[in-house]
Design goal:
Structural class of chain A: mainly beta
Structural class of chain B: mainly beta
Helix content of chain B: under 10%
Number of helices of chain B: 0
Order of helices and strands of chain A: EEEEEEEEEEE
Helix content of chain A: under 10%
Radius of gyration of chain B: 14 Å
Number of helices of chain A: 0
Distance between the termini of chain B: 38 Å
Shape of chain B: globular
Number of strands of chain A: 11
Shape of chain A: globular
Largest sheet of chain A: 7 strands, mixed
Oligomer: heterodimer
Distance between the termini of chain A: 32 Å
Largest sheet of chain B: 6 strands, mixed
Strand content of chain B: over 45%
Number of strands of chain B: 12
Order of helices and strands of chain B: EEEEEEEEEEEE
């Protein structure tokens, strides 16, 4: 067990809706990253938060947004859902000395499986 | 262009056979980090190893070993005497020194160990 939890486990939404996915990191982990993993693909970096500020973003549109809270929890929000948003969403937390690398291992949660109909 | 290439999509081996999973990476940074993760059917990515670009020593951990060769930009992973519990998808990942907050993952290799 990594100590990282995600909720919900599964979610079904329809196109155009909005969704919020949640992640609870290990205590003391000040950095959280979110990844999207489409079926049969590797995880794709969405963005990272360090001490509640966005600290890097991958090639995802602005309708993907996030929040990080002082209690080591975080959210991924996706607006105007599209069919291609169907994927496993993973969060990963780590304890970082700063906003820059090097990083130790990231601890991944079990993911939220989002299906958009 | 893909920063991490795992050319083997699926591999099947019989239990107790050795198997090597290939990983080729691409980066212009002189400082970078390479990782291997295991993803069982439950979906959670399990950390196996981290290597930095300045340490080319090969590493062995039980039945697992890793061969890092900068000359060929490869970071291959070998499982010796495979077991059914090794069946999973394995991902190689790269984190670059200057923008290391982003992990670049390969497309994964699905390993099936047949009893």
């Amino acid at each position: 067990e990594t100590g990282v939890t995600q909720s919900p486990t599964h979610l079904i939404k329809t196109r155009g809706q909005q969704v919020t996915l949640r992640c609870s990191s290990q205590s003391g982990h000040n950095t959280v990253s979110w990844y999207q993993q489409a079926l049969g693909q590797g995880p794709q970096f969405i963005f990272q938060y360090y001490r509640e500020e966005e600290n890097g973003r991958g090639n995802f549109p602005p309708r993907f947004s996030g929040l990080q809270f002082p209690n080591y929890s975080s959210e991924l929000n996706v607006n105007a859902l599209e069919l291609d948003d169907s994927a496993l969403y993973l969060c990963a937390s780590l304890a970082s000395r700063g906003a820059k690398p090097p990083y130790n291992e990231q601890f991944f949660g079990p993911g939220t499986r989002l299906t958009v109909l | 262009a893909q920063k991490v290439t795992q050319a083997q999509t699926e591999i099947s081996v019989v239990e107790k056979e050795d198997v090597t999973l290939d990983c080729v990476y691409e980066t212009r940074d002189t400082t970078y980090y390479l990782f291997w993760y295991k993803q069982p059917p439950s979906g959670e990515l399990v950390f196996l190893i981290r290597r930095n670009s300045f340490d080319e020593q090969n590493e062995i951990s039980g039945r697992y070993s890793w061969n890092f060769q900068k000359s060929t930009s490869s970071f291959n992973f070998t499982i010796t005497a495979s077991q059914v519990v090794d069946s999973a998808v394995y991902f190689c990942a790269l984190s670059e020194g200057n923008t290391g907050n982003q992990f670049y993952f390969g497309t994964g290799t699905s390993l099936t160990v047949i009893p």
